[in-house]
């Protein structure tokens, strides 16, 4: 097993970009009573294994709002806002703070990264899993392309544009500060989208060659990342914003990261 890498921070400067160290995080959430969150999960409390997964699917699939792919642009400008500069968003893999209105498809723009690669299940960008903001994050266009549709694992060559991230022919390793974020987004998708909505049944496995199958790995590594990088205030805030303002559902593994081990 590889140990986590800790890399020195790199400052990037460009006339088109506003840059901060890669340790930038999102602001803390507004105080939310624990009892309110626990009420949301009432039907899951005390369950384990497949029963817990089924209960969580029912909870996070009920009363939700589905966004269009265009609406995702505006949602990300809120969910991933830089707490130190409300004109910017923080990019997932680089940690860079960048202007909200620099979104697009050109080099050094930011675009919408499907953390669960949309080719893994071929669900595209029609309303559904392809527009689920819980796994969509702002990323540098070039870095998004470098990640492509690779599974997640340790190792490879360090990304030139996103130091701290590593890649090889079949996998992507995100920087340490967001390893747990990535894992919990993947676990959320595997619970939320189970084949009952006209889309593929998304599942995690321990492979890195899943291609267009509705699977993503490596689950053993994702479980390690969930423990190594527990939810921080920024991730919790993002979860609350999605619940309050956009989809009206939560990522249960941000509220209860221990449930990962109960299911997988």
Automatic annotation (TrEMBL):
Keyword Hydrolase: yes
Keywords, comma-separated and alphabetical: Endonuclease, Hydrolase, Nuclease, Signal
Superkingdom of the organism of origin: Bacteria
The UniProt record lists the keyword Signal: yes
Annotated region (Disordered), positions in chain: 119-175
TM regions (residue ranges): none
Coiled coil location: none
Signal peptide annotation: 1-27
MF term (GO), any: endonuclease activity
Xref: InterPro entries: Endonuclease-I, His-Me_finger_sf
One Pfam family cited in the UniProt record for this chain: Endonuclease_1
Protein name: Endonuclease I
Origin species: Saccharopolyspora shandongensis
């Amino acid at each position: 097993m590889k140990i986590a890498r800790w890399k020195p921070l790199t400052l990037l400067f460009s006339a088109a970009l506003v840059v901060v160290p890669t340790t930038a995080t999102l602001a803390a959430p507004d105080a939310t009573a624990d009892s309110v969150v626990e009420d949301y999960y009432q039907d899951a409390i005390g369950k384990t294994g497949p029963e817990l997964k089924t209960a969580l699917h029912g909870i996070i699939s009920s009363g939700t709002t589905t966004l269009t792919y265009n609406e995702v642009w505006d949602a990300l400008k809120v969910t991933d806002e830089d707490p130190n500069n409300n004109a910017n968003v923080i990019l997932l893999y680089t940690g860079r703070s960048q202007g909200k209105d620099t979104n697009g498809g050109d080099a050094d723009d930011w675009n919408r990264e499907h953390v669960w690669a949309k080719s893994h299940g071929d669900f595209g960008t029609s309303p559904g899993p392809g527009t689920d903001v819980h796994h969509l994050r702002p990323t540098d266009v070039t870095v998004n392309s470098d990640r492509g549709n690779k599974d997640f694992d340790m190792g490879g060559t360090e990304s030139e544009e996103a130091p701290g991230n590593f890649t090889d022919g079949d996998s992507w390793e995100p920087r340490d500060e967001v390893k747990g974020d990535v894992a919990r987004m993947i676990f959320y998708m595997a619970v939320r989208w189970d084949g009952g909505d006209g889309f593929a049944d998304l599942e995690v496995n321990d492979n890195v060659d899943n291609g267009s199958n509705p699977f993503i790995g490596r689950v053993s590594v994702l479980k390690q990342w969930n423990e190594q990088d527990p939810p921080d205030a920024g991730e919790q805030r993002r979860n609350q914003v999605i619940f309050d303002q956009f989809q009206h559902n939560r990522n249960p593994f941000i509220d209860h990261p221990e449930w990962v081990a109960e299911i997988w």
